[in-house]
Write a structure and sequence with these properties.
Layout: E1 3-8, H1 13-23, E2 30-36, H2 42-49, E3 54-56, H3 64-77, E4 82-85, H4 94-99, E5 104-108, H5 120-127, E6 131-138, E7 148-155, H6 162-186, E8 189-192, E9 195-198
Parallel strand pairs: 1-2, 1-4, 2-3, 4-5
Antiparallel strand pairs: 5-6, 6-7, 8-9
Helix pairs in contact: 1-6, 5-6
The structure holds glycinamide ribonucleotide.
Glycinamide ribonucleotide binds near residues 11, 14, 109 and 173.
Length: about 200
């Protein structure tokens, strides 16, 4: 069962990269549903254009867990096996995380544990690091914290501002997310403490 549920809040380029890989047969998965907490998310429009099931579950003015219960109900209705946060700018409640143990992934535009939270690319430029990148990790109850599946390194150039760096990191995000999804769907790893370890021969 390789049913993906994608949660997003904005542009949706990570979703599109995953959808392109599914359409090209490079990822043996089915995008069962795309859900946004914002009606104006570009990713929702893009999902509809692709003929995918796309839902808006507004979060504004709702207690976190109530919103999460609505989202989880929609994921269950569409028999989602693996939840992929793709620019989903909301913290999940512990209750949500418990519904899909080791079955929720997130992508973050920095090499965690450096620069968690918002504006990670600006944090990296401002700090003066010489490399940054992206991280795909399991979601646990702490922000940008769960066990790491894939990281890609991107150099920070002297000429970079946060936008130039973000654009180069994004190219790597589009590669990294499908790699991580493939690893999880194929079950080619074990989780030992915080370490995701590839099985021999994988
Ligand atoms: C991506 O850069 C993603 O890593 C980031 O939001 C962007 C969404 O772009 N996520 C976070 O910062 C989460 N902490 P997209 O909508 O084009 O995929």
């Amino acid at each position: 069962m390789n049913n993906l549920g994608i949660l997003l809040s904005g542009r949706g380029s990570n979703f599109e990269a995953i959808a392109d890989n599914v359409a090209a047969g490079k990822l043996d998965a089915n995008i069962a549903v795309v859900i946004s907490n914002r009606a104006d998310a570009g990713g929702i429009e893009s999902a509809r254009r692709r003929g995918l099931k796309a839902l808006v579950v507004p979060s504004k003015g709702k207690p976190r867990e109530q919103h999460d219960r609505e989202v989880v109900a929609a994921l269950r209705e569409h028999q989602v096996d693996l939840v992929c946060l793709a620019g989903y700018m909301r913290l999940l409640s512990p209750w949500f995380v418990q519904q899909f143990p080791n079955r929720i992934l997130n992508i973050h535009p920095a090499l965690l544990p450096a620069f968690p939270g918002l504006e990670a690319q600006k944090q990296a430029v401002d700090y003066g690091v010489k490399v940054s990148g992206c991280t795909v990790h399991f979601v646990d109850t702490d922000l940008d914290h769960g066990a790491i599946l894939v990281q890609k390194v991107v150099p920070v150039l002297d000429s970079d501002d946060e936008h130039a760096l973000a654009a180069r990191i994004l190219e790597q995000e589009h590669i990294a997310y499908s790699e991580a999804i493939r690893m999880v769907l194929e079950g080619r790893f074990t989780v030992e403490g915080r370490r995701v370890v590839m099985k021999p021969g994988a």
